[in-house]
Amino acid sequence: MIELRHLRTLLALRDTGSLVEAAERVHLTQSALSHQLKDLESRIDSALFARKTRPVEFTRAGLRLLSLAEQVLPQVREAERDVARLAGTEQGRLHMAIECHSCFQWLMPTVDHFRDHWPEVEIDIPSGHHFDPLPALAREQLDLVITADPQPLDGVHYVPLFRYEGLLAVARQHEFAGQGFVTPEALAEQTLITYPVEQSRLDVFTHFLDPAGVRPREIRTAELTIMMMQLVASGRGVCALPSWALTEYLERDYVSAVQLGENGVWGTLYAAMREETREAPWMQDFLRTAQETSFAVLSGVRPATRDEGSTA
């Protein structure tokens, strides 16, 4: 009567608080998700939640099934891992590189959780790379690369993890503070602070400034996010970062944030791996854990569509 997909949908609805975002989370259309919930309600002959409420208010029946989901789904996940081990597919190596400077906020909890469940898999995050991570992945020097800039490489597959919005951080007293959005032209007289990477790997250039043919007055680089925020707060420039990287600074009222363009600038973060390892149970579990963790700890991220993944 009650299926695992129903339980996963209810958890998504609770975590997101809306039908639209829950549908994105479980990769269904809103219509399909509504149909699934109505089907479940007809099976149990009871309403699951009050309609037209945000966040969603669950009925007693809905809360009971949520409790069931919290008990059952982790057990199912653990059983899947055990079955993979019994099949003898637990051995593996996961050496990874991160091209995203602000990714450690969700990646470290992911690695810790994964290590607890797959102790047989060797995990390492080498530091001090003096080579491009994606070609190193193709050469089998690495096993996974977290990147927002997928490149066409033979035998390399990209799995979208989540979508994120880039925001412009400005000083609280800056002329942009309080505006709904800024245009590319508005940055022509600004000092733009970035990480010390190629401009072709920064969304603020590729998706915002370059299409408009605009260059900032000056470009300044900083290695760490906190250094960038100190420069911004002191009025020495503006900085474009993923929304989640700005959360703690916005909550502390250290800086202000403005949307890039009227429709915003959105990017997708990918996990890149070789074709021969993409179906390994431990790799699949790592990807699933990464997605679940990112939604749990990051603000403002959205599920990526399944057709965003590709094989070069």
UniProtKB/TrEMBL annotation:
Family designation: Belongs to the LysR transcriptional regulatory family.
GO CC terms: cytoplasm
Designated name of the protein: HTH-type transcriptional regulator MetR
Keywords, ordered alphabetically: Activator, Amino-acid biosynthesis, Cytoplasm, DNA-binding, Methionine biosynthesis, Repressor, Transcription, Transcription regulation
Location in the cell: Cytoplasm
Annotated InterPro entries: LysR_HTH_N, LysR_subst-bd, MetR_PBP2, WH-like_DNA-bd_sf, WH_DNA-bd_sf
GO biological process, one term: methionine biosynthetic process
DNA-binding listed as a keyword: yes
CDD domains per UniProt: PBP2_MetR
Transcription recorded as keyword: yes
Domain HTH lysR-type: 2-59
PANTHER family listed in its UniProt record: HTH-TYPE TRANSCRIPTIONAL REGULATOR, HTH-TYPE TRANSCRIPTIONAL REGULATOR METR
Source organism (scientific name): Vreelandella subglaciescola
GO molecular function: DNA-binding transcription factor activity; transcription cis-regulatory region binding
